[in-house]
Amino acid sequence: MRLSMESSVQMDFMECIFKKARENKKTIVLPESNDRRVLEAASVAVAEGIAHVILIGDGESVRADFSDIPLNDVTFMDPKTHEDIEAMAETLYELRKHKGMTLEEARANVLSPTCFGMMLVKQKLADGLVAGAVNTTADTLRPALQILKTKPGTKLVSAYLLLLVPNCDMGYGGMFLMSDCALNVDPSDEELAEIAIASAESWHRLTGEEPYVAMLSFSSLGSGRGKSPEKMASATRIVKDRAPDLQIDGELQADAALVPRVAQLKAPASKVAGRANCLIFPDLNAGNIGYKLVERLAKAKAYGPMLQGLARPVNDLSRGCSASDIVGVIALTAVQAMEFD
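RE: above sequence
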């Protein structure tokens, strides 16, 4: 019975995301039209009414090369033939001339599928962008920061993963948010506090459930000494000062954060230990390794990396993603875009 309940929570969550996306359909850009997984995801997203999809590239050529994938209802835009490409180049030049970009460089850059896609989002011709099946996180994030900028009041852009772990009674029915797993290499305590608060807000916005945030380390509440536990403990204090109503604790070892029996031994007074659903890692090494171990060894579904802190929704993908993973991120991006209505 417990396992079916866990599966139900996860299925209900994604079905809720798909339902929200269908009810307020957004337009999502996919710049990587040379990848079969992306094209399959675009076809499914449109066929199931999850989003309108814009693929960047020569539609005639792509449809010929991937004739087995139904793409008739997907919109293609080719920067080389787009009627407003010069205006986009001039906009990019105005955004970047203070950094030394020339108009000629702007004209060249805007022909890049990812840069062109960001300009569509900037000009509100699309509501969000999903990339990373082919390109690196840096290739996705750089033009996002240059063109879309950060959300007002935001100091730091960070990345989280949503993981749905089968046969798991921890977290929220086996669901977890893990952060930062893609961007910030060695965040300071101040930066970790920003990541924790943003991640808690992302969790609540997507799931409707209260976040229980664990600041992870190799120590639980002073049981070990070192730079990492001290940094996580300091970050926890900063968050408690800035967001006193947020359920957060740390530093905590992963088992103390997740397992009630261990929590009773290592952190008996903690309201977070044993029930954490948002896991904040001390650095990118731990975050990236940690989520990929869970994804592969526990056969978890991983959606993201999802970016938080940008002025418009842009989300990254793992280059090891499947077509169904991309469909999920398209839907999540569409739901994120509703914040900007």
